[in-house]
Amino acid sequence: MAVRYTTAQLRNPQDPSAPKKFYLIEKSLGSIDRQYLINDMVRNTSLTPMEAATGIDYLFSAIPRLLELGFTVQIGELGYFRIGISSEGSDTKEEATPDKIKVKRLRFIPGDIIRKRVNDFAVEKHFV
Q1: Among candidate residues 69, 101, 98, the one with its CA nearest the CA of residue 85
Q2: 52: buried, middle or exposed (CB in 10 Å: 19+, 13-18, 0-12)?
Q3: Does residue 38 lie within any of the structural domains?
Q4: For residue 13, what pLDDT is reported?
């Protein structure tokens, strides 16, 4: 399989007056849901459907809870989850308070093995 893409003519957001250019945009074939993952785990492991569902559901509940406690959550070679924040600048240290936070983001940083695999994926044009 390969990463699929389409082309789109887009404006440069940093220079809206510049001429539009063509860019490659990734194109998904759809999404995989929880039940698909469970069925796939059952087909490819010795897990029962209940065991597979329990594992997936545990991650869904544990990751946000552990992030809220202040931890980075490492999931083996898959990678890790962490919280990132963006804030307004302040002139003094005393003015730098939590109300200056503009946005909180969930960050996923893939591990080296999965990052390399993704970078090695073939690429092909998506035809609709």
Answers
A1: 101
A2: buried
A3: yes
A4: 85
